[in-house]
């Protein structure tokens, strides 16, 4: 499906056929510590009844987001990649053959009359409100869904039992009553909805408007961290590396670094690193003013700069334009298949 086909599908939606859902996340019972992050959690879908006013609000803000996609002629569909360039894209992420817990949300739960919420407080006592979803039914066979990540600060719970309160809260929820011109306490459970959409799901594909939040919704960011830790173990055991314990600290404090290690794995650069190619890497580092720290014939990490230089070189960060001859520095890019002449 191309952009024009997606827009034509979206235009068939009407506000009267709009439903709203909350998606919660809960840790699975008995899950093993070494289990994949994508398989550690269960997601549950709940339908929530909404007023016509909220239904109209959600429909209108969604249409405004869709219009931006339609009017942006430079917005192209691009397959999702862990690291991408700064060019504006509409990334696509296929859920076909994906086995993570979120696939159950889009393939099963949303299509099988989810439980309706009667007491949000009770649900949130044991589950985390993870995202909200809006379903647009086109006909009896087709529905597309939009998702928006919900942060903890966007949810308010009214503790009716004063005995459960452990002290004075750091914040209170208030609203300005225009009838009395006074600021009053806002009581009851509250969920703040904003004007953004993170992704659209239709026909087994996610169309990603906000990559960072999409990765949060599906749990990809947590999976990237776990994968980065596994790559670090492989690197530590590699014959061309010595003391690299500093790498673990960087993984813990820098989420953006996780993707760089995954890029390294995808390129397969470690598989080609040996005594001969290490000398080539050392020479390249000097020419790019990104020297690697080598002692006794092995790469070691004594500073963050040692790590950054090494990973950049192994990930082909330094690139040169074939036509312009200009030099670039970026982790983005895909290996292009060369056509046989």
TrEMBL record:
What is the protein's name according to its record? DUF4868 domain-containing protein
